[in-house]
């Protein structure tokens, strides 16, 4: 997997194409860590012990399957 885009606003998100799996949840719940584990790349999605580290909507794609994406959403609460 590789980083596709970090979108600070929804209108900056890429157009919907193919399949997206989004990770949503509370702040510091481990969403970015789960993405890193699933992709086998410990540095793909930025992680931190400080809640609220993910502030943009982060899209990741797979070069071998460009119509499939993983989306890392900012935490809430």
TrEMBL record:
The lineage of its organism: Bacteria, Pseudomonadati, Pseudomonadota, Gammaproteobacteria, Cellvibrionales. Residues 17-77 form the EngB-type G domain. InterPro entries: G_ENGB_dom, GTP-bd, P-loop_NTPase. The keyword GTP-binding applies. GO terms for cellular component: cytosol. The keyword Hydrolase does not apply. Signal peptide: none annotated. It comes from the Bacteria. GO terms for molecular function: GTP binding; metal ion binding. Keywords: GTP-binding, Magnesium, Metal-binding, Nucleotide-binding. PANTHER family: ENGB-TYPE G DOMAIN-CONTAINING PROTEIN (PTHR11649:SF13), MSS1/TRME-RELATED GTP-BINDING PROTEIN (PTHR11649). This is 50S ribosome-binding GTPase.
């Amino acid at each position: 997997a590789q980083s596709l885009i970090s979108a600070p606003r929804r209108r900056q998100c890429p157009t919907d194409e193919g399949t997206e799996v989004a990770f949503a949840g509370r702040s510091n719940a481990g969403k970015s860590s789960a993405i890193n584990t699933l992709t086998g790349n410990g540095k793909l999605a930025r992680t931190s012990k400080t809640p609220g580290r993910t502030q943009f909507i982060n899209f990741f794609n797979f070069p071998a399957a460009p119509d499939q994406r993983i989306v890392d959403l900012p935490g809430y609460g």
